[in-house]
């Protein structure tokens, strides 16, 4: 059988870079160095003489590759698409572990394939491949690639760190902060591409554990017969194939009862969300992450009734609070804002409507920070409840013992709709600061049980436009 070996043309430069990183800081973040500049020593081969039944290259070459965490601990799901219904394959192996730097053998898994027509005016049938990689070890990084017959993707390096669904435990080996990119309202076009390039380079230098996209994806996933969604997913592949890309739906995902969204993004599924992944939660390190679907409050014919999500949300928060000693931070991520200062109705009548439904829950269960989007601005509030600022802002960039949730609007990644405007010249008293002329994204870092850090990056200016620490006490929850 004729065989060849996987050839990484950048191998030498990546190896040099990896070593230079280790020289600078040989002890710290060893896994993170490997995630981005792995000293891959090849070893992957595939048979070249497999017969490919009459297909064009574009039909079988894997594209729109991305990964996400699932409802199971120690597991990720890898998804990609092809335009041919042949069964795909994924190959993966441990490439580096803290206690063992010798790569393991390659493991091959055949893909599950489902068909969906993303077209509207005419057909855009795609074959969605998915493979779950289980039993991941948080002390290791892995490498994987996907393919159909002899057409294989490039090779991606990923962390073995995954959510823990057992509330009574936290990661005890990993002393590194939990780190996330938070991004909202991100589409294709010049602005979206510019943000993607900067984020990609940022993540090369400062990798994260995961990415949370706060809804409004591609503008829109279904536009131009689904081709805008395809273009967006190809655009984000360099990051989404390397870092778990966790999403929630916004108003731009509503087309065909969100089926474009749910077919493209396989989020954690459970009995409460009836297998759709439209709302879910997970623990990572010292933080509990809750992602909800605010469209349920604005769409009378939504897939789920309001009560379904509300009941789950309260149940989930109660469970999180029972474990607050171990996992003290609770964050909520959602698309539409409760507090924001744009001139649109989204920050007045619609925000008030949402506030009536959710604010009491967030306050009662002592949510720390609520991350919102939808308004194409960046904005940050005082700790706030019922329109009144509560104590807990020690200085402009430090919260201490906040007595109510802090609200952030982060909906300015870049889309064809451009910027929104902030109210001028007078803001509500709970407004701390905001930016209306920047495209960008945020970075969340949870350091330990008492300290978290957040910064907002402008891809327009190429600089950090806001940052803050939150230092917490036990006073706000009953433990
Ligand atoms: Fe929106």
Automatic annotation (TrEMBL):
Keywords for the protein's UniProt record, in alphabetical order: Glycoprotein, Hydrolase, Signal
Protease is among the record's keywords: no
Entry's EC annotation: 3.1.3.2
Keyword Signal tagged: yes
Every Calcineurin-like phosphoesterase domain range: 179-378
Top-level division of the source organism's lineage: Eukaryota
Catalysed reactions, as listed in the record: a phosphate monoester + H2O = an alcohol + phosphate
Domain Purple acid phosphatase C-terminal, first and last residues per copy: 404-467
Protein's name in the database: Purple acid phosphatase
